[in-house]
Amino acid sequence: MDDFSVWPPLIGGLMIGLASATLWIANGRIAGISGLFGQLLPPTGTVWWRLIFLAAMILGGLAAASAVPALFSGFQPQAPHLVGSPLWIAAAGLLVGLGTKIGNGCTSGHGVCGIARLSKRSFANVAIFFAVAIATVAVTGVV
Amino acid sequence: MHPEHAPRYLAVAAVTGFIFGAGLFIAQMTNPLVVLRFLDFGALPSGGWDPSLGFVIAGAIVVMAIGVRIAARRSRPFFERQFYLPEWTEIDRPLILGGVLFGVGWGMSGICPGPAITLIGFMPENLWIFLGMMFVGSFIGHHVLIAMSGGKAPAPAE
Question: How is chain A split into domains, by residue range?
């Protein structure tokens, strides 16, 4: 990691925290992306703000992609690509959808908001999914 | 008008979603390899381990924890009637099973739901497969959760 810089991940993390804190204080909602996504399915009465949040996330990512090389000199993000075969990707997507719905949260909802709220459910869920993900990579390798 | 349909409420959703997505990109959480190289503790001795995810989540938790303290002084949010906290408080079987299933999927792909959505702007090959199956998984999971909870309606997301 010769070229590792702490600033992009730290600033990105602070921005995620700022967005989560603002949504909580202003609208009283947890910025849990699996919940936002999963609750687009019926039955639900509050689709609009979820759709707007998700669409704005996409725009925010694109805007950052065009602004960031000018903000951080030497920071050259690679074009993202998914690892593994289509079948592998399908299985992973299914498991992420299943697991975050059954466990009622993901990296944002449990990992950021739940830990910050000192929720014991979130501590348990986060410990489990990090341990299992690390074990999974240890078995499969970085595909 | 219900608070959730007020322009200011929707504006908060737009601004916070934008900052969230930009933060994910700046942190390079949209690159599955950066996430996988954090989870790859086997690469520690060779110096190939990527600590990025640790800084991202620590930074986010610190700011959110401040937000939680600010919110705790208020009886209600600025633009809503109440804070929507998850109704469940116990560590139960669905919470554990969900963590295991999500952990496997995350370790296989390096993608969790936030980056999955943000990546739509970049449309890498096969992303639609991941998103489609994530939606299917969420749909099936909804019914698994109801079955495991003895027919209770699911709580709002945590």
Answer: 1-77, 80-143
Picking from A6, A39, A134, the nearest residue to B41 by CB comes out as A134
**Using CA atoms, how far apart are residues B81 and B79, in angstroms rounded to an integer?**
7
pTM: 0.94
pLDDT at A76: 76
Q: Which of A48, A124, A104, A76 is nearest to B4 (CA)?
A: A48
Q: Do A138 and B40 touch (CB under 8 A)?
A: yes
Report residue B103's pLDDT band, with 50, 70 and 90 as the boundaries: very high
* CB contacts < 8 A (A, B): 518
Of B4, B67, B108, the CB nearest to A21: B67
Residue numbers in A near B58 (CB within 8 A): 13
Is 50 exceeded by the pLDDT of residue A1?
A: no
State chain B's maximal CA–CA distance in angstroms. 59
Q: Three-state secondary structure along chain A?
A: CCCCCCHHHHHHHHHHHHHHHHHHHHHCCCCCHHHHHHCCCCCCCCHHHHHHHHHHHHHHHHHHHHHHHHHCCCCCCCCCCCCCCHHHHHHHHHHHHHHHHHCCCCHHHHHHHHHHCCCHHHHHHHHHHHHHHHHHHHHHCCC
Helices (H), B40-88: 52-72
At A118-142, the pLDDT tens digits run 999 999 999 999 999 999 999 998 7
Q: Tell me: the pLDDT tens digits for A26-51? A: 999 999 999 888 877 665 667 889 99
